[in-house]
Amino acid sequence: MSEALARQTREAQELIDALVEEKALRREQQWEAEQQLNERYQQERQRLEGEYQAQLELGVEQLAELKAQLALDPDRRRGQ
């Protein structure tokens, strides 16, 4: 009887140990997935910020060109 109880205790402990290992592995996998997601987010954010900055600079250049054209054309400036 004590032999059977000892065997059941060992089996239960082995099962618990296996579950603890699986839980740790899943946590590590989840952490790695979150890191990859964060990295992709940061890359996409930087790409979009770069595109926005380029568009903003282009708009500023175009506005400066229009202002220069208006300054050189007195008829347009007066609305004629």
Written overview of the protein:
- Helices cover 95% and strands 0% of the residues.
- The radius of gyration is 34 Å and the shape is rod-shaped.
- By secondary structure, the protein is mostly helical.
- It has 2 helices and no strands.
- It has one domain (2-74).
- The N and C termini lie far apart (110 Å).
- The model has no long low-confidence stretch (mean pLDDT 94).
- The chain has helices spanning 2-72, 74-78.
The biggest sheet, with number of strands, parallel, antiparallel or mixed sense and barrel status, is: none
Number of helical runs?
2
Helix-strand sequence: HH
- Write down the overall geometry: rod-shaped
Keywords: Coiled coil
Coiled coil: 2-58
